C-alpha cells in the first residue's frame, strides 16, 4: 500500500515505455489521462511498474483509490509473473491505464500461458473453514480482483493474453 508520506517516486526500467512527459498531461476536467508501461516479467520490474502507475495518478486519486489500484495491479501482475511465465521470467508485461469520467480503464497483456477460465468465475472466497495448515495457497487474489473491479474481461489472441477491467473512481475534480 502507499506510504503515509509523499507520493512514490517514478522509477524507470530499461524496458519501460510510457506516455510522453506525463507530468504535462492534459489536466482539463474530463480529459483522458493515459499511462502505458512495459516491463520484464519479474518481481522487481513489477514492483517498479506498480510504483510508476500509482505515481502517475496519485494526485487524482484518494488514498483508498490509490490503494485499490495498487492492490489490483499487484495481484494481476504478480499472477502473470508466477503463473503465466513461471520460472522463465523472459516475457514482457504491458500495462495500459486510461483515466476518464468513468474511472480507470486498465489493460494488462502478456505472452505467457493462457489464463485458466476458473479465474473469471463468480467471486467466491476459498473455504477457510479448515485447519490453518490446510488453508489453500491461491484463490484469494482472484477474489479481490473480481470484487474490486468492474467490466472484467479476458481475451487471448495470437499467443497473447489481454486482461481488461475498470476501477470505478470518484469523478475527477473540476
TrEMBL record:
Q: Which CDD domains match?
A: HATPase_RsbW-like (cd16936)
Question: Which residue intervals make up region (Disordered)?
Answer: 1-31
Keyword field contains Kinase: yes
The protein's matches in InterPro entries, at most eight in alphabetical order, are given as:
Anti-sigma-factor_SerPK (IPR050267), HATPase_C_sf (IPR036890), HATPase_dom (IPR003594)
Q: Is Transferase one of the keywords UniProt gives this record?
A: yes
Which residues are in the Histidine kinase/HSP90-like ATPase domain? 46-166
Which keywords belong to this entry?
Kinase, Serine/threonine-protein kinase, Transferase
Which Gene Ontology molecular function entries are recorded, alphabetically?
A: protein serine/threonine kinase activity
Q: Which SUPFAM superfamilies match?
A: ATPase domain of HSP90 chaperone/DNA topoisomerase II/histidine kinase (SSF55874)
PANTHER family listed in its UniProt record = ANTI-SIGMA-F FACTOR RSBW-RELATED (PTHR35526)
Designated name of the protein: Serine/threonine-protein kinase RsbW
Amino acid at each position: 500500500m502507499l506510504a503515509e508520506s509523499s507520493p512514490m517516486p517514478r522509477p524507470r526500467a530499461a524496458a519501460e515505455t510510457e506516455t510522453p512527459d506525463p507530468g504535462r498531461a492534459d489536466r482539463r476536467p474530463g480529459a483522458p489521462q493515459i499511462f502505458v508501461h512495459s516491463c520484464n516479467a519479474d518481481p522487481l520490474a513489477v514492483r517498479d511498474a506498480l510504483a510508476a502507475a500509482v505515481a502517475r495518478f496519485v494526485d487524482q486519486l484518494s488514498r483508498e483509490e490509490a490503494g485499490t489500484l495498487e492492490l489490483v495491479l499487484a495481484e494481476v501482475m504478480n499472477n502473470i509473473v508466477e503463473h503465466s511465465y513461471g520460472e522463465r521470467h523472459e516475457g514482457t508485461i504491458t500495462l495500459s491505464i486510461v483515466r476518464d469520467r468513468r474511472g480507470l480503464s486498465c489493460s494488462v497483456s502478456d505472452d505467457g500461458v493462457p489464463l485458466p477460465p476458473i479465474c473469471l468465475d463468480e467471486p467466491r472466497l476459498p473455504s477457510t473453514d479448515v485447519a490453518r495448515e490446510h488453508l489453500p495457497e491461491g484463490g484469494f487474489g482472484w477474489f479481490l480482483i473480481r470484487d474490486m473491479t468492474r467490466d472484467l474481461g479476458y481475451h487471448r489472441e495470437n499467443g497473447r493474453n489481454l486482461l481488461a477491467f475498470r476501477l470505478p473512481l470518484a469523478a475527477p475534480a473540476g
